[in-house]
Design a protein that fits this description.
about 250 residues, alpha/beta, Rossmann fold, 7-stranded parallel beta sheet, Short-chain dehydrogenase
């Protein structure tokens, strides 16, 4: 048994980011053609495009502001007319900002997290799920975070956005399930990426000590779960929030 995405089209938002780039490679390695979304990093998008094509897959790069309805709809038209309607959508993009306490956090940071964590998923659903409904097939996957369960000081804007995202995903899963579309969330912990490897910061004694597996996860481990949820091996999983954090948070029943 293996993850086989042959013949599927996957779209990854924030594809040039630290986690997104590994998702793109992994989905392509599993056989999918990939739409590589970016906002500013065109150079990385083009490099990823070359990597995907070197695997014998089709690839398309597209620029869009995923918080803007018109921008996403323009992206949709380009994607559908160039490669076809995606079978798999991975909403990975998020706006970065500096964390501080509720009393000190600028109001615009709460607005940015609402736009990138909530509105991105609403707009992407409006753009691409109708095509999934027509096909009676689809995988809609969002990247959440372990922070949604931790609620630590200085996380308020991020957690507010991601918890709002969680509500959208759970309700959407119930609304579109009859069409054989699954809607799931992957919640990474503090993940090792290329940035850490280049800086030599893979280890954190304080963080690692709190994790049951006693280490940070890797970008590849996150991408593996995304690929699983994108596949037919996960055809009966929907509405799930799946932490990929070595047991650092554990949803209870």
């Amino acid at each position: 048994m293996k993850i086989d995405l042959t013949g599927k089209i996957a779209l990854v938002t924030g594809a040039t980011g630290q986690l997104g780039r590994v998702m793109v490679r992994t989905l392509a390695e599993c056989g999918a053609d990939v739409v590589i979304h970016y906002l500013k990093n065109k150079e990385m998008a083009e490099a990823l495009c070359r990597e995907v094509m070197s695997l014998g897959r089709k690839a398309l790069i597209v620029q869009a502001d995923i918080t803007d309805y018109n921008s996403v709809m323009q992206m949709k038209d380009i994607v559908v007319n160039s490669l076809g309607a995606p079978d798999i959508v991975v909403d990975n993009a998020v706006i970065q900002y500096n964390w501080t306490t509720v009393l000190k956090q600028p109001l615009e940071d709460y607005e940015s997290q609402f736009r990138s964590c909530v509105m991105q998923n609403v707009i992407m659903a409006k753009a691409f799920i109708p095509y999934m409904i027509e096909k009676k097939y689809g995988r809609f996957i969002g990247i959440n975070t372990e922070c949604s369960m931790q609620n630590f000081p200085t996380q308020s804007a991020y957690v507010a956005g991601k918890r709002g995202m969680d509500g959208i995903f759970r309700i959407l899963a119930k609304e579109v399930g009859e069409h054989q579309i699954t809607v799931n969330q992957v919640a990474p912990g503090w993940t090792i990426s290329d940035r850490d490897r280049e800086a030599g910061t893979e280890r954190s004694a304080e963080y690692d000590a709190k994790v049951p597996l006693k280490r940070r996860g890797t970008d590849q481990e996150i991408a593996n779960v995304v690929a699983f949820l994108a596949s037919d091996l996960a055809s009966y999983i929907t509405g799930a929030y799946i932490p990929v954090c070595g047991g650092n948070v554990m949803p209870a029943i």
